[in-house]
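Tll0287-like domain-containing protein
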Amino acid sequence: MKRVLIYVAALTLFGFSQFGLAALAQAKQRAVLFEFAINQAEAVHTQPRLNDSADGKVERATEGSVEKTPELKKQMMLDRNAASNDQQELITQASLRVKQFSTQLKAELGAAIQSGGLNAGVEVCHSKAPKIAERLSTEGWSVARTSLKTRNQENTPDQWETDTLTQFDARFKQGEKAENLITIRSDKKHFRLMKAIPMDQVCLACHGTSINPSLQKTIQKYYPNDSATGFSLEDIRGAFTLQKDLSE
Ligand code: HEC
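Structure:
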């Protein structure tokens, strides 16, 4: 009897400890998800700029001055409030796609560089970047990257993208954080969002001012019209550019 009791007690304790561990793991997962949601929310809500839409649905937000004058602060509040619930939802969807694009490409690029060096990195970027973009272009979304100086000409910006990239450069040079550089634009038929991509130490080898000659050869082989070099750490390299067709 005593033995049985001990056995039951041990089992109960074991059960509790398992339950405790599972609960702990769940709580941790929730905390991570929560943190992710907060980051997303912060990233997209800090300063989304709302551009004039074709039918004038949303008023133009601030431009130029980035000094945090009371006027600008007021305007930033307006920006946040101006995004309707529908737009907030679209911003969230777009941000998730941006995050996926960036995580997947970084993983592919990192693995390629580690196993085959920078030349392999170029090849992987060449074959995988457009594929990842295509894979994420579902449910009416089109997902891509663009820049004022492109490597792949398919990524050439249109007029709105050119204007937005120029604006991002100016805002970044005046001290705004790259991760806050987001602009949205919407009308009844389309929703568009751009998010700046800053330069980073690892990008310099392939987009910086001095490219290794053998790497240069590989780049030229795939991209004879490459103009995506000469960037420094103080530059915005380009932007993610997303569009959703709302008429579907
Ligand atoms: C191994 C070389 C390599 C490295 C490292 C690299 N890139 Fe690229 N990058 C490329 C290639 C190749 C393309 C063209 C991809 C394509 O065909 O779509 C490209 C394209 C881009 C584009 C799309 C616009 C364009 O020019 O066509 C952006 C934006 C970009 N890279 C940003 C970055 C950033 C930011 C980093 C650092 C985090 C980085 N790249 C690191 C090789 C590289």
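Confidence is low (pLDDT under 50) at residues 18-47, 51-69, 74-78.
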